[in-house]
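My main concern about presentation is that the manuscript never shows what a single data entry looks like. An entry of this sort, consisting of the sequence and the corresponding backbone structure tokens, reads as follows:
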Amino acid sequence: MAKGFLLTVAGFDPTGGAGILRDCATFRSFGFLGSAVITANTVQNTKGVKRVEFTEGDFLIEQLDAVLEELPPKGVKLGLPHREERVNREIARRIESLAVPVVFDPVLAPTFGREFVENPEAIAPLMEVATVVTPNYSEFKRLKPLFGEVFSEKVVVVKGAPKGEAEVEDLLIVKGEIVARVAHKRDDRVVRGTGCAFSSALTALLAEPKGVVEAFEGAVSFVGSLRESAFVLNGWKQLYPLL
């Protein structure tokens, strides 16, 4: 029997390797059902993002209200933010009222292709409402000058921080202090959707509920298995995860 619902508010990737489809697949891996509200639709494949169309703001909020009316979630994963601060503020107001774990993966740009959000300040409402923020290393460097104070007060996971020439590491930071870290061998394999998978796995584990260190370690382990399962097809630029 399912453990309940988790909600993802994020973008749509038609390949299913990332975005809300990856989130919902990950939720099911942990025994939860998934509901989803789409912030943006995309034209993309593993070679890159070619076009982005953000959902009209009032429609998005109406969709979110309809989902929350019948499917109260035990946790929320926020992914690709809307480009309009007004819309993000309305999302944040509704999510904050739920009093559940909220994991924000601040996706500003894809691995390949055009940027999603040109004005990072528009994501401020989502930063404020998040329980945990999970930027990769490049996103963390870009956002820290704008949101340094927020980062110092939050639980933050920095993914893929450099550690010498042969390794990278994932860092769990609580109110400015590193409390856990997991190192990985550096390689050049680009696996699709690992950021989405990590944040949605973390959401599921926090909703179980598990403590933040145990949830962090479990999400890191899940993404490790995802990377091991990834395969390549002729012409693909990124490896596609099997799980």
User: Anything to note?
Assistant: The chain has a mean pLDDT of 92. The longest strand covers residues 33-45. The radius of gyration is 17 Å.
